[in-house]
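User: quick one, fold this
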Amino acid sequence: MSDMKSERGFTLVELMVVVLIIAMLMAIGIPTFLGARERAQDRAAESRLIAALKTEEVVAVDDAQYTAVVAILAAAEPALDWSGVADDSIHIVVGATVNANDTVLLYTQSSTGSWLGVKRVAQGPTTGVYTCIGAARADVDDLADCTGTEW
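Assistant:
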């Protein structure tokens, strides 16, 4: 008598159920991952803008006004791209609310394609920091555009 053990494998139905479960987990996980990635890219752009605003404020302490002079800002914070040439560089708009150059708007494009801006008004009844976000550059590139929309 031979001692033959019967071999038992997985049935086709069992394999299909496993594949279906893996597909469902992927359908849930991939959009969640992509959403987290986009949020992280937007947060990186926000961080660059906050650092740029802090630099503008440091420079303004000496001059009593904001500046759009790239050389001055780059000397104060060389880690940022102040050129305003590339969409993801820091773009600067300096204007007046009460006195000359007492308002500054900084904006950039996130890797997600969103445009983000931050405006600081140093004097007057609207003194404060305002943020804005938009789908196009025209949504954030003017002092009137940043009115406090949350990032």
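User: anything notable?
Assistant: The mean pLDDT is 91.
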